[in-house]
Design a protein that fits this description.
Strand 6 and strand 7 form a beta hairpin. Helix 5 runs antiparallel to helix 6 and helix 5 crosses helix 7. It contains 10 helices and 9 strands. It is of the alpha+beta class. The two termini are 20 Å apart. Helix content is 46%, strand content 16%. The protein is globular and about 55 Å long. The protein has 2 domains: 143 residues, Beta Polymerase, domain 2; 123 residues, no CATH class.
């Protein structure tokens, strides 16, 4: 994408502080990491393209790619050695500071089976990490601070869409609504994040279909999700979407999407049409 990647004047100091701490630790241990969740959404849509978002919380979510659980523990221990951080007493991936909550989710070589992690020592807590590897591979690097100079990787909307769908499909009730709401935002606004000109270039075939503007957005997102998915991830995501749009569905995803405060006047039928266009894009085989 032809975008300016210097957003150092748009990132809140408390976020920069956490990023500096985690970057130093991960560099020391040669562990790749990237920003995901609401922070990635706000950076990509808000900071890079001035698309208005609703800040959901003060949480900052990260994915770290590790081959051993010991590597994950090294990162957590090093973060906790900085006095401003404390460990959460209930969630293994979570630490706290005075200003924010930091979730650090491990993935990579520790997945067993692929797309799933089981938390030690008893392996009794599982978390799906479908799409994390693809999201890291296709993340973008942005400058979040000039003094000190700091570049970090940020998940792009196609990666976020994969993770939101996956998280929604397995999440608890309140979490489902948040994931669904975020996914609706990504689908509707994706075209406004540097993608409109594609309709006159590589994706000009869509113009002939005379689709609504938001339908074009959904279709482009579906195409881009397809580009980054492995066959295994595609099978998971495609199944979730297909179940939610087919005749006779309970339309649970649509019901949860309606809770988005930015689109509280959007009709369920309108959302269904958006999901159908997203699904078409997801399954288009193009040269």
């Amino acid at each position: 994408m032809n975008i300016s990647k210097d957003i150092s004047n748009k990132i809140e100091p408390y976020i920069v502080g956490v990023l500096c701490d985690l970057d130093a630790i991960c560099n020391r241990h040669s562990i790749p990491f990237f920003i995901l969740g609401a922070t990635a959404r706000d950076i990509f849509f808000g900071a890079l393209f001035n698309v208005k978002t609703i800040r959901a919380s003060l949480d900052i979510d990260f994915g770290i790619q590790v081959n051993r659980w010991d590597d994950f523990q090294l990162v957590i221990d090093d973060m906790l050695s900085i006095k401003k951080y404390t460990r959460d007493t209930t969630q293994l991936q979570r630490i706290h500071s005075e200003t924010t909550i930091v979730d650090i989710v491990p993935f990579g070589g520790i997945e067993n089976p692929p797309g799933t992690i089981m938390w030690p020592p008893h392996n009794d807590i599982t978390m799906r990490t479908v799409g994390f590897n693809e999201a890291l591979q296709h993340s973008i690097e942005v400058c979040v601070s000039k003094n000190p100079e700091l570049y970090v990787k940020v998940c792009t909307p196609p990666g976020l869409a994969i993770m939101k769908l996956n998280s929604w499909s397995e999440g608890e009730y309140n979490r489902k609504k948040k994931d669904a709401s975020d996914l609706l935002f990504i689908i509707k606004e994706y075209i406004n994040a540097g993608n409109e000109l594609r309709l006159y270039e590589i994706d000009k075939d869509l113009i002939t279909e005379q689709l609504l503007y938001e339908h074009l957005s959904a279709r482009l997102l579906g195409r881009d999700v397809r580009k980054i998915c492995t066959p295994e991830t595609m099978a998971v995501i495609n199944k979730i979407v297909k179940q939610e749009i087919e005749e006779g569905s309970q339309y649970r995803l649509i019901g949860d999407m309606i809770t988005n405060r930015m689109y509280d006047d959007t009709l369920p039928s309108t959302i269904l049409d958006l999901l159908k266009q997203f699904h078409i894009g997801l399954n288009e085989v193009r040269n």
